[in-house]
Design a protein that fits this description.
Length: 306
């Protein structure tokens, strides 16, 4: 979506304020912070608010697997719900905001600042640039997504490993962090995180068969593969092990990595922009369900059992 001509930036009658990239705090286990309003734009249905920093995780416009956080923005005694949280990019020479799919540049393009855009009700147009606001994330909702997202990573590592042991007839070029043939990378079509759940859809097409996956055998024994995955995950989660996010910077466009200390000798590192758990003890246990959708697609549901 773009900011329409009908939307009015609160700064339109003032000199252009250079907007800097949002300092993100959603990987820091921070759920409430005070911040400064840098940009406010509104129309009859909504208000867009950009602050200098935020604990809110926005939904990605490139790979929208992890939903936006929920929560509130307080200005003095007035509280506004955050209706959505989006990725935006501001062209610094003009101050024009572009949102989500209408962002015309790649990340870190010169002259552009990537920002977290908080979508508030139209009544929030009362917020002014330079106002101090308090941003409060729904901690429990974010935690439920974090568990679902980390569960999805653990499940696809187990899926890759089970398939690598019995269902590949060739040496695949791509390997995952555990050294298994990376079925997840080759075949994943979509991945969606919801509270306590990760839903992954995979395509078993001709290309995957040519790469060496025995698709027919895999589909025939889907129940057995599912059982092996669940058994493997049960072993992995028998001991509590740490999970951390490694950040290469605080900007939205800086790389972030999910890192899991599987055992004393194995550190798993996966590029990921979502929010996550800090220890596998938060998951209690997982239940993976594999379902054949049609001749070329399977679905993996990874439930967090608490």
């Amino acid at each position: 979506m773009t900011t329409s001509d009908s939307m009015t930036p609160a700064t339109s009658m003032k000199p252009i304020i250079v907007i800097t990239p949002t300092v993100t705090q959603f990987c820091h286990q921070a759920w409430q912070i005070n911040a400064k309003a840098l940009y406010v734009e509104n129309d009859d249905s909504k208000t867009y608010l950009i602050t200098d920093m935020t604990p809110f995780h926005p939904v990605s416009h490139i790979w929208p697997d992890h939903p936006a956080d929920r929560g509130f923005v307080n200005v003095g005694d007035v509280q506004y719900p955050v209706e959505d949280c989006l990725v935006g990019a501001i062209e610094q020479s003009t101050g024009k905001l572009h949102i989500a799919a209408d962002i015309p540049v790649k990340r870190d393009a010169e002259g552009w600042a990537f920002v977290v855009v908080h979508q508030l009700p139209a009544s929030a147009s009362m917020i002014k640039v330079n106002d101090e606001v308090m941003l409060s994330v729904d901690k429990e909702y974010q935690a439920s997504l974090s568990r679902g997202h980390s569960a999805g990573h653990i499940a696809f590592l187990a899926l890759n490993k089970v398939l690598a042991e019995s269902y590949w007839r060739k040496d695949a070029d791509r390997k995952d962090p555990l050294g298994s043939y990376d079925f997840n990378s080759y075949a994943q079509v979509t991945s969606f995180v919801t509270p306590e759940l990760c839903t992954d859809k995979y395509r078993l097409g001709k290309t995957l068969k040519k790469r060496g996956l025995n698709v027919a055998d895999m589909l025939t024994n889907l129940d057995g593969i599912e059982a092996d995955i669940n058994q493997m995950i049960k072993g992995w989660l028998a001991d509590s092990t740490p999970v951390a996010m490694r950040l290469e910077g605080e900007a939205l466009t800086d790389s972030r990595y999910w890192e899991w200390q599987l055992d004393s000798d194995t550190l798993v590192s996966i590029p990921c922009g979502g929010t996550h758990i800090e220890n596998t003890s938060e998951l209690k246990s997982l239940s993976v369900k594999l379902t054949q959708l049609d001749d070329q697609h399977i679905e993996m549901l990874t439930h967090v059992i608490r």
